[in-house]
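FIELD: query
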Amino acid sequence: MPLHAWLDIDLADAAERIPRKMREIVSATLLRRGCVVAVSGGIDSSVCAALATLAMGKEKVFALVLPERDSSPASKELGVRLCEHLGVPYEVMDIASTLEAIGCYRWRDDAIRSVFPEYGDGWKNKIVISRNLLDTDRINFFRIVIENPQGERMEKRLPLSAYLQVVAATNFKQRIRKTLEYFHADRLNYAVVGTPNRLEYDQGFFVKNGDGSADLKPIAHL
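FIELD: result
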């Protein structure tokens, strides 16, 4: 099937059909009273929260805004604005102290310091691809970019062991969030709504037992 055919979506039909199926799954199959949705302020979680509201009614949707130390301030603001726009009950829980206590930030920083010993509090970091994949026929590798509080940037190749430890620490954040989602789902007898879209779902671009874990995934086909 050509790409344009996949993208030819009847939005009005989808907005009616998906909530109807969600309601059937939540109420008749899972025997749950409503939905829990973690919202990040991004498009996917916003769409899922809106679909859950259409499916169950705003009084039967509980939203969670779960920022942490590395989250953009805009993410929290947009998440709260979405919840208030939809009129759903919500709770903001900063998970930074939980991640700190369990060692998430320390493990990540230890991995970065194996490459840059000077890396410290207040520094920024990101992992990048060494070059444009379309412009090379060589095997690619990851690099770590750090920035000190003065704005000076440094970049080095990231060894596999350090890369895996950074990824493991980052994935920890999604798993802590999912634990909180299921706590509230159990407390309320609700179902957890997953937010991966089709591209993420097909490519496996989600965290096992993290954002990939849910009772239903309403946009995994879109």
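FIELD: remark
Helices lie at 3-7, 11-29, 43-56, 73-86, 96-102, 104-113, 160-188, 198-203.
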